[in-house]
Design goal:
The complex is a heterodimer of chains A (380) and B (242). Chain A folds into two domains: 2-41 and 256-379, no CATH class; 44-255, no CATH class. In chain A, 50% of the residues lie in helices and 15% in strands. Chain A has helices at 3-10, 12-40, 45-48, 80-83, 132-138, 191-198, 217-230, 240-254, 257-286, 288-296, 301-336, 345-371; strands at 58-62, 75-76, 93-103, 109-117, 143-147, 164-165, 168-169, 171-176, 186-190, 206-207, 209-213, 236-239. In chain A, the strands form two sheets. In chain A, strands 1, 3, 4, 5, 6, 7, 8, 9, 11 and 12 form a ten-stranded mixed beta sheet that branches. In chain A, strands 2-10 form a two-stranded antiparallel sheet. In chain A, strand 3 (93-103) and strand 4 (109-117) form a beta hairpin. Chain A is elongated, with a radius of gyration of 29 Å. The mean pLDDT of chain A is 90. In chain B, 31% of the residues lie in helices and 26% in strands. In chain B, helix 3 (112-122) packs parallel to helix 5. The longest helix of chain B has 18 residues, at 187-204. Chain B starts with 9 loop residues before the first strand and ends in a 7-residue tail after the last strand. The model of chain B has no long low-confidence stretch (mean pLDDT 91). Classes of the chains: A alpha+beta (380), B alpha/beta (242). Chain A binds chain B through residues 3, 6-7, 9-11, 287, 289-290, 292-294, 296-300, 303, 375-376, 378-380, and chain B through 53-54, 56-57, 60, 62-63, 90-95, 97-99, 101-103, 105-110, 114, 118-119, 122-123, 151, 167-168, 171, 179-180. Bound molecules: adenosine-5'-triphosphate and magnesium ion. Adenosine-5'-triphosphate binds next to strand 2 and helix 1 of chain B.
Chain lengths: 380, 242
Amino acid sequence: MSYALQTLWHERQRYVSGVFAVTFSAMLIALQCGLLLGLFKITSIPIDHATPALRDRIIWVGSTGAPSVDLGKPIPAAFLTRLAGRPGIAPPEMYIANFANFTKPVGGTELCFLLGTRLDDEALAPADVLTPELRAALSEPFTIVVDQSDVGRLKLDSSEGKPKINGKEVRVVGVVAGLKSLAAPWVFCSTHTARQLMGPMLPPDHTTYFLARADSPERARQVVTELRDAYPDDMAAYVAEDFSYRSREYWLTRTKAGVAIGYAALLGLIVGAVITYQTLKSATEASAKEFAILLALGIPRWRISVMVLQQSFWVAVIGMGCAYPLCLGLRELARLGGADVDLRWEVLAGTAAVTTFMCAGAGLWALRGVRQIEPMSLLR
Amino acid sequence: MPAISTTPTLRGVHLTRTYGDGAKRRAALQDVSISLYPGQIALLMGPSGSGKSTLLAVLSGLLEPDSGQVLADDGGEMHDVWAMTPKQREAYRLRTTGFIFQGFNLFPALTARQQLEIVLNWGGYAAGGEGRRQADEMLDRLGMLPNRSKKPSQLSGGEKQRVAIGRALVKNPSFVFADEPTSALDWENGQKVMELLRDGAHDRGASILVVSHDHRLLPYVDVYYHLEDGHLEERPLTPPGH
Ligand SMILES: Nc1ncnc2c1ncn2[C@@H]1O[C@H](COP(=O)(O)OP(=O)(O)OP(=O)(O)O)[C@@H](O)[C@H]1O
Ligand SMILES: [Mg+2]
């Protein structure tokens, strides 16, 4: 075991505050990033739940410059021919995705987001949570399905009155679970129902998206590139996983939520760095006489500096070692409360990098104490 | 007393050192010259504030004198310690010098053996198994081998000072400087320490300078210097009247 680690263990009551500070900073950063990513996953639900197993080979075609799946504008159905007939591509299907006005049965309106898809077994677009029974029910005109979490918000639990979308009466034929919404509840229906409900807002012979399945992920990327090159002006094409990423990223930047998280993380880092610095500094001061002896004996000062930096490294490692299990525990707790904390490996690795960097900074800062150690102080 | 070489390995020549400025100016050393010989243990005594620690620091390359020279044998040639660059002086101390102080200054987290190993490892003398072997050999000479796995909190004052002596001697220095090495110990342990230091000088040919207030150390040394008001004189070892 290294001298640094041995000292850390022997004087653990001294280092515990530094370790705690690192744990705190790491948790703050990881959980905030995880919460944010979890939250913004909602923005790409229509993409992520459309046959998830094929997310690397479903091609989405929509209007130009649609920065996010909920902001697509109608495109002519005739664009179908641009896709059809290409080798390695299955015949495309239409997907209508549009904001609509939801009138609650008890009165009052909410914005909702209509997702009108084909419903047959081969269809790519319908959400994976729609069971064959629900799909069958949705094939009736003017029927819809909503998520469990939006039932209360849309007042669908009241026995009197009928809900309306864009002024037309609809019938709720079932609920699904796990598709939370942010601003507007998702409303699942058939393309036919969606077209009826949108009325003049969706011009005839228009759709919001085309979805087509490629034989392989490579072929999907090829076709996307071909389409972009051939029709740069009035059409956009993405592979599903890229469009999903783009939608989340758009809302993350658009809402400046990343900036807010950045500030909170910075604050956590500063607090962590100051406490870690204090810990290392007091530890260095406590060992000043021992270090002074080594200097008198001619041991180069950098050896002592390296030991302090090693200690800062171990403080980082132990602090994060405590933080990760706590983060995972809190994620489960958040899940019980209905919030999704997305602790993907990028979040954990990024947190580790930032925290180690912070500890290295605190260690370097504490080296000022090493420079002040003087062998002469030992003589009396 | 063993035969002592006639060529000194460390010479302080016309050393002067003052502290403070203006009215507060005070000379701690005034034209002090001293020679240390290999295999010899020297005792430096004098009243409190007479400049003993100052002389030790100047001779050992820790404190720069105002004037005068410190000439040291380093690899068979005499070098002026205070004409070296700080880096050179650090390397010179690493090669040649050991220190023992009143406070033992051992790392609380490390075992007796590790206190010696850290010097061997970080000083580039020996690493790994070889470092452990050399440390154990030194501890054995000091009668501390059974305690090699103990940390300072598990050792008595005398045992701690023996570990500190081991740390000073383990790299086999030509010069060893000890400032009040026995004053934190009872007489029995103080005697033991002096015996070990004397053996260190006589067996290894080191030049050892011990600073102390304690006249009882006289029987353990080869020469005795008295420092008072910054002036040094050599005194006979047998007190007058014997
Ligand atoms: N850093 C300093 N600044 C100013 N004066 C100092 C300093 N160090 C020592 N002195 C003074 O120089 C004189 C000699 O000090 P030194 O420490 O060498 O004495 P000493 O003989 O070792 O005393 P003691 O037996 O008490 O240890 C003393 O008067 C002391 O006050
Ligand atoms: Mg003194």
